[in-house]
Amino acid sequence: VPVKYRGVFGTISTMVRVQGPRNLYSGLVAGLQRQMNFASVRIGLYDSIKQFYTKGSNHVGIGSRLMAGCTNGAMAVALAQPTDVVKVRFQAQINAGANKRYHGTMDSYRTIAKEEGFRGLWKGTGPNITRNWHVNCTELVTYDLIKDALLKSSLMTDDLPCHFTSGFEAGFCTTVIASPR
Fold first, then answer.
1. Domain-embedded: residue 21
2. Which of 60, 95, 137, 166 is the most exposed place for a label (fewest CB within 10 A)?
3. To which H or E segment does residue 181 belong?
4. Which domain holds residue 70?
5. Any idea what DSSP says for residue 120?
6. What angle do CA 11, 17, 20 make, to 5 degrees?
7. What's the CA dihedral at 47, 142, 43, 125 to 10 degrees?
8. Global pTM?
9. Distance, CA of 162 to CA of 55 (rounded, Å)
10. Is there a domain that residue 10 lies in?
11. 43 vs 45: CA distance, rounded Å
12. Which residues of the chain have pLDDT under 70?
């Protein structure tokens, strides 16, 4: 009987019932490595790259923000792609039983590099960068624009509630833009 998944919580409960709770965390180490690498570049370099595109000007236009979002998104994907490949491959073998190809995160890196060459760790980088341009630009640029609007209108000051509100609204915009992809 094929397993049916119904929504996020239905999928989680089905996975726990069929595969056990431990399998929810399959690929966690690679996922953490990916997100830490990805976020540090994507968020950490955004302002510096934005300043590069404005060439020292105090006025930051939408074009500079979009270019910065595209650039640092592509850089983050290029850096984090091997961890993405390992995470996806590791998760894909959940039902392999004793025939698992990968036995741990580091074994996954070694096996992929040995069998497919070092470049095998970067499979799918082009499509991942293309997808990430939309996500990264929408998230960082809308965050920037919303935060600037809140500060200029004096509705909020540059503190935690302003950042939370800007991030919440940017997350909404990003989901609306990225979902059809």
1. no
2. 95
3. none
4. 32-178
5. G
6. 100
7. -110
8. 0.71
9. 27
10. no
11. 6
12. 1-3, 94-97, 181
